[in-house]
Amino acid sequence: MADNIEFADDAPLFAQSQEFHDVKAAAHEHLLTRIEELAAEFGRWSRQAINEFVALEMDSFARLRRIPLNESEVRTIAEALTKELAGYGPIEDLLSDPGVEDILVNGYRDVYVSRHGRLSKIPVRFSDNAHLLRIVRRILAPIGRRLDESNPMVDARLPNGGRINVIIEPLSLEGPIVSIRKFRKDPLRPDELLSNGTFIPEIGSLLEAAVTVRCNILISGGTSSGKTSLLNALAFHIAEAERVVTIEDTAELSLNHPHVVRLESRPGGFDGAGTVTIRDLMRNTLRMRPDRIIVGEVRGGEVLEMLQAMNTGHDGSMATVHASSPRECLYRLEMLAGFAGFQGTESSLRRQIANAIDFIVQIGRLSNGRRRILSVTEVTGLSDDIISTQELYRYEPVTTPEGEELDRWDTLGIHPHSPKLARFRQSISASSGFGMGGSRDGGLYV
User: Fold this and answer.
1) Cα torsion at 131, 137, 140, 144 (round to 10°)?
2) 172 and 165 in contact (C-beta within 8 Å)?
3) Alpha helix (H) ranges present in 87-128?
4) pLDDT over 90, % of the chain
5) Looking at CB atoms within 10 Å, which of 26, 116, 132, 291 has the fewest?
6) Are the C-beta atoms of 394 and 375 separated by less than 8 Å?
7) CA 302 to chain CA mean position, Å
8) Sorting pLDDT into bands at 50, 70 and 90, what band is 441?
């Protein structure tokens, strides 16, 4: 089967039939009765022991009820029941599949997965919405998060490092809506992103130099565009002697660095008491002697503390922002600062932003699922109360006469302006080849 969910013989068709769900539901009730008889003993069993127990009970159940199932169908139901009792039911295989990036469940009938940036519907379903809700609560149980009518939305970090978002009735009209984002255990390295075509060596060299000399960098892009993966990769260039503090709403970053302090915000209780926001964490971080501060996503009042930190000696800080372009990224910072109650003039705010940010890296997910750096833009200062920028690289794919689309980055050969990169400018001026000058027509191909 294309989606790496393995069944025997004609099991895929049978597993999607109503007969399968009816028999499984009846067998599940039978198993629950048997488990009640075993009491605490069942809780000590291994996964293998549960598997053998379910296989024996399912075989006996089918014979006693004279249910017309062949051996393959009995085995298919037994495997599903094992996942039901000891795992996460229909989505257990998806959770363990390294090729799956996102699992999206729209009610009990519709399940979609994202692979290599592309969504597809798969032939997996739950018995009903109550079944789906039971599996969701099993996922949430170790996290200690409540999901009910008084608290119908949950956004939480999974023990394995992924993230789950659930919204239920009455807010959802189609039953429970579940979105699970999975993250790699080992973050992508810069050379892996290079080999994937996310950027070209010239851009990689510039970003490596920018991180090494402690430029402040914002990574801008849309949902699932690869912002977190790029941020993880850039962290490979941070010196080991530096202390890095990460601040996130839901911990997603996985930095390959020996000295990382990870902080995560906390939602309040039923009455809102106990809330700890990213802004609260940002203020506290300034007292923790950080060399670099990395904010998982800037989307609120913490933008003021972040700009203050970048302007008062915490160079080399990085963050991600939801925005569709570098210019929109700057507008979003202004808007968030206004919402946070910035008291100064528009001119003074823009001056702070221009002084704080060195580079904006725009990344996006293309229609074919590929993730590419779309723009590398340097913030050069303030001119006539407008934040000045210069675009060093822009992604402009070209199509060959044969219809093949080639990745291509346009460059005007402009050197980065920042004084921090003076040595980098000297090295690329002295080097031969493209350097920052690009090819003769101003483009770089891969």
Assistant:
1) 180
2) no
3) 92-96
4) 47
5) 116
6) yes
7) 21
8) very low
What are the residue boundaries of the structural domains of the chain, listed by start? 14-86, 88-183, 190-432
* CATH class name, domain 88-183: alpha beta
Q: For residues 72 and 12, is the Cβ–Cβ distance under 8 A?
A: no
Q: Where are the beta strands (DSSP E) in 143-183?
A: 153-157, 163-167, 177-181
Q: How many CB atoms lie within 10 A of CB 315?
A: 17
pLDDT given for residue 51 in this prediction: 84
Do 354 and 389 touch, CB atoms closer than 8 A?
Answer: no
pLDDT in tens, 236-292: 999 999 999 999 988 888 898 999 999 998 877 666 678 899 999 999 998 999 999
Nearest to 323 by CA among 332, 336, 315: 332
Torsion angle of C-alpha atoms 7, 10, 11, 14, degrees rounded to 10: 160
As a whole number of angstroms, the distance between CA 12 and CA 1 comes to: 8
Most confident of 181-185, 286-290, 434-438: 286-290
77, containing H or E segment = helix 71-86
Listing DSSP states for 21-57 in one string gives HHHHHHHHHHHHHHHHHHTHHHHT--HHHHHHHHHHH
The residues, any chain, with a CB within 8 Å of residue 195's CB and separated by 6 or more, are none
Which of 440, 441, 439, 426 shows the shortest CA–CA distance to 202? Answer: 439
3-state secondary structure at position 361: strand
Q: Which CATH number fits domain 190-432: 3.40.50.300, 3.40.50.2000, 3.40.190.10, 3.30.450.20?
A: 3.40.50.300
Q: Could you identify the residue written with the tokens 């700890």?
A: 276
Cβ contact 306:319 at 8 Å: yes
Which DSSP category does 241 fall into? T
Yes or no: say if 127 and 102 are a contact pair by the CB < 8 Å rule: no
Q: Are 117 and 371 in contact (CB under 8 A)?
A: yes
Instruction: Provide the token pair at 63.
Output: 């014979």
413, 419, 422, 423: CA torsion to nearest 10: -130
| 3-class SS of residue 359 | strand
Q: Is the dihedral of CA 119, 121, 123, 124 positive or negative?
A: positive
